[in-house]
Amino acid sequence: MSQQRELLFVSSMFLFPVDTGARIRTTQILKGMKGGRFRITLASPATEAELSEYGGQMEAVCDNHIHWPRSERGWLFDLLRMRHLFSPLPIPVVTDRSEDAARLLESQIANQPDVIVVDFPHTMVLMPQKLAIPAVLFTHNVEAEIFERHRKVVSDPLRRFVWGNQYRKMRSFEGDALRRATRVIAVSDRDKKAFNSRYSVTDVDVIPTGVDLDFFGYQPPADTPNVVFTGSMDWMANIDAIEFLLGEVWPLVVHQLPDATMTVVGRNPPPQLIARAEQSGYAWQFTGWVTDTRPSVRQSAAFVIPLRVGGGTRLKVYEAMAMGCPVVSTSIGVEGLPVEHDQHCLLAESAEALADSLVRVLTDGEFRNRISVAARSHVEDNFSYQNAANIFEGICRSVIR
User: Of 9, 89, 110, 250, which cross-links 93 as Cys (Cβ 3.0–4.6 Å)?
Assistant: First the structure.
């Protein structure tokens, strides 16, 4: 192998535990690139406790890790961050700013790495305004689009004002971040087209969504009336999805299938949402954070993704498909992924259609198994994470050239 080049990978979040789609995608890319054409220095925030607990896992994704201090975010964080509502920058960007990070990154850039990868547009707030070194911006979705969709689904005027305010600021910030990069990496052709139409950005490459096929091994779907959802339950898009499932979809499911059960897997579920499910008398379980989602998925006959807002592509789709659990989703839930309705998954938009699709999967064993086998074959043939990492590495090399 020829001499490795130097790659500085900058993330505004600590990457462990790997409990969100963004962390999964980023760590898989880094793991796939480790030991290849680049010597990887990962820069991110971290607490001393995180470094102590996850230091061994860091070695699998980078050759060197540098960090700036990250303060713990307590229960008041979401409330206190609203003081930035009238900042010229969107709230998530303001809360990512760090003078410690800016100084650390300035010193690292002075060492002249061959290429810089910036993970998420938010992270551009930490970078110097002018970059003399080729910089690749790794996007996981169209950020402004998420804010725009939240604005459309909320009903009360105050929340609509807040989401509209943040949408306009994110659109401005995201466009500037994309234009500052030498090259942009998107996770779907759809996102690439959105960057071009929204911001006139054309230097965009697309990497496929990848999944660890060994870790997410196949087994036939369970013969049980249980449905499962996985996702961080402190993310607004997921909260909205489960509220929609609980309030509008599930009553229609149990009307047709009274013994149906539901498992929601994900960290920090809102207490009021748990209380609503209990008061409704439904057989719902909220697990909170788990070290491994696979047991819950393998004990279920259907994997539901009732998203109404969100962006990018969702790794959970391919993980469920790889494990053989049939996916029932809105179109937003599988947005940007090349999957076909009634072949790899079931797609539905309305509460009635989602309920009917769930009942069909739960009650029709022959159909359930057909979808399961076809979905696993589709993922096997097209979507390994190593393939995605190889393409990512090639893009970084081309930027240097």
Answer: 89
Cis ω for the linkage preceding 17 (within 30 of 0): yes
State the Cα–Cα distance between residues 383 and 211, nearest whole angstrom: 6
Residues 6+ apart with CB under 8 A from 55: none
Residue that has been written with the tokens 């498909």 in this structure = 321
Contacts of 72 (CB under 8 A, 6+ apart): 47
Two structure tokens written together for 309: 């807002």
Q: Are the beta carbons of 91 and 84 closer than 8 angstroms?
A: yes
Contact 363, 257 (CB under 8 A): yes
Hey, what are 68's tokens?
A: 């700036």
CB-based burial label for 368 (10 Å; 0-12, 13-18, 19+): buried
Pick the CATH number of 5-210+385-400 from 2.60.40.10, 3.40.50.2000, 2.40.30.110, 3.30.1330.30: 3.40.50.2000
Can you give the pTM of this predicted structure?
0.76
What stretch of H or E contains 155?
none
Query: Tens digit of pLDDT for each residue in 112-146?
Result: 999 999 999 999 999 998 888 999 999 999 999 99
Closest CA to 227 of 343, 368, 397, 38: 368
